[in-house]
């Protein structure tokens, strides 16, 4: 809880450093238990700019974070705090191809317990139209995954 009790100027400096350190450092932090707590605190209580930058990092690393328990918790927090616009962005990102892949990014996390739980959280928050597109993306991969 030390992060929550810092003065605003000190906290802003820490948040700026985290956000501006690049995707590798952000990924290390968000997958750590205390780091994930800090990221979730930013999503709940940070400035609009800090929340927006944090969401961008989470979207960029969504495949990696979806299969990490701490990372998935941060993505779930972004979903809770961000409303409909954030839900649209997360669903859209799940439909995109992973780097260097032809299949939608959602197919890989669907093969892990943590990823499946995150996908379930996202899809349960989505409306019928939002759910249709991700379902279509993973439908063809379910049979392949079952044969593994």
Description:
- The chain has 148 residues and is an all-alpha fold.
- Helices cover 75% and strands 0% of the residues.
- It contains eight helices and no strands.
- α4 crosses α6.
- The radius of gyration is 16 Å and the shape is elongated.
Q: What's the arrangement of secondary structure elements?
A:
Layout: H1 8-20, H2 23-30, H3 33-45, H4 48-60, H5 62-66, H6 69-95, H7 113-125, H8 128-146
Structural class: mainly alpha
Task: Please state the CA-atom Rg, rounded to the nearest Å.
Answer: 16 Å
Outline the biggest β-sheet: none
Distance between the termini: 43 Å
Number of DSSP helices? 8
Mean of residue pLDDT? 85
Q: Strand-residue fraction?
A: under 5%
Helix proportion of residues, in percent? over 70%
Unreliable sequence segments: 143-148
Net shape:
elongated
What's the β-strand tally? 0
Strand and helix order: HHHHHHHH
What's this, in brief?
With 148 residues, this protein is mainly α.
Using brief descriptors, characterize the structure shown.
mainly alpha, disordered C terminus, 148 residues
């Amino acid at each position: 809880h030390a992060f929550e009790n810092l003065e605003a100027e000190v906290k802003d400096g820490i948040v700026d450093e985290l956000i501006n350190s690049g995707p590798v450092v952000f990924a290390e932090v968000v997958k750590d238990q205390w780091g994930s707590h800090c990221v979730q605190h930013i999503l709940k209580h940070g400035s609009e700019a800090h929340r927006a930058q944090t969401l961008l990092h989470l979207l960029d690393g969504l495949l990696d974070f979806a299969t990490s328990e701490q990372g998935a918790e941060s993505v779930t927090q972004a979903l809770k705090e961000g409303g409909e616009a954030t839900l649209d962005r997360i669903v859209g990102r799940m439909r995109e191809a992973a780097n260097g892949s032809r299949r939608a990014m959602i197919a890989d996390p669907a093969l892990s317990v943590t990823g499946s739980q995150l996908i379930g959280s996202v899809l349960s928050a989505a409306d019928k139209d939002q759910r249709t597109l991700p379902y279509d993306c993973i439908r063809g991969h379910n049979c392949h995954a079952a044969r593994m």
